[in-house]
Amino acid sequence: MRGAAAGGDADSKTLIRRIERALEAAVPVARKEEPAPLFRALRYAVFPGGKRLRPLLCLLSNRAVGGTVTEALPAAVALELIHCYSLVHDDLPAMDDDALRRGRPSCHVAFGEALAILAGDALLTLAFEHVAAESPPHCAAPLVEEIAKAAGVAGMVGGQAADVLAVKKGARSEARVNWIHEHKTAALIRAAVRCGVLAARSKEKYLEPADRFGRHLGIVFQIVDDLIGRSGDPRVAGKPVGRDERRGKLTYPSVVGEARARRRVEQGTERAVSSARQLPHPAELERLALQMKERVS
Description:
The chain has helices at about 10-25, 35-45, 55-65, 70-90, 105-110, 115-135, 140-150, 155-170, 175-185, 185-200, 205-230, 235, 245, 250-255, 260-275, 285-295, and strands spanning about 100, 105. With about 300 residues, the protein is mainly alpha-helical.
C-alpha cells in the first residue's frame, strides 16, 4: 500500500489542495501538554503525504455521478487517515520492517515502536470520528459502514494477515496473491470510489459500475506498485527496490512473471475505463486510470 499516481491535471491539483486543508484541520497539532510526542507522531505520519490517491478517488467518483465535493470530503479525509495508519503499522518490525517511508525514516524509527503503534491507533479512530461527525446526515452511517468493512478483517486487515501468513508458509500461487492484494490494497481503493457515490444524494444506482471501476483500479495499482518496487526508481518507490522479493513477500511479478504482470496492468486499465464510462461524468476517472498505467509503460 505504497505511493500512488494521482490526476495530474489542474483540477485534480485543486482537489488535492482542498484535501490537504481538510487534513490539516482534522489532525491535531502538537501541543505543549501531554501527550505532545503522540501529536507530533500523528502529524509526521500524515504530512507531508503521498499523492493522496484514495481521497482524490473519493472526490472524483463523487463528481462523476454529479455530487458535490463538500458532501464527500469527510469520507475522503477518513480514507486517507486510515491509509496513513496502515502505512505506520506496515512498516513496524513485526510487519514489513521498513526503515524508510516516502524517502524519510518510518514513524517507528523517528518516534519509537510504542508511539508509532499508538499513532496508528489514533489515526484509525480519528478517521471514524471524523466521517461520522462531519458527513451529511443522509450518508454518515452508510459511509462509516463502507469504510469499516474495507478497513477491517473482511478487507485491508484481513489481507495484511494473509500476506504475513503467506510469507511464513511459503504459499505462492496466482490465486493467493490475487486474494491478498484484492483485500490488502484494492479494498480501500474500491471503498474510496464507492464512498464518493454513497455521499452523493440518491446516486446509489451508480454503485455497481463505480464498484467495478474501483476493483479493477485497485488491482492495477498494486501490480504497478509491485513492478516499481521490483526494478523501478528508488526515488519513486520511496524505499530500496527489490526488498519485498528478497524477503519472500508475494508480489505479482514474482508469482506470474513481469511480462504477464504488465499484461494484467493493460487489461485491468481497459476494464476500469470501460466501467467508468458507465457513469455520467467519467473523464477524470478515466484520466487517472490511464496515468496510473503510464507509470510502468
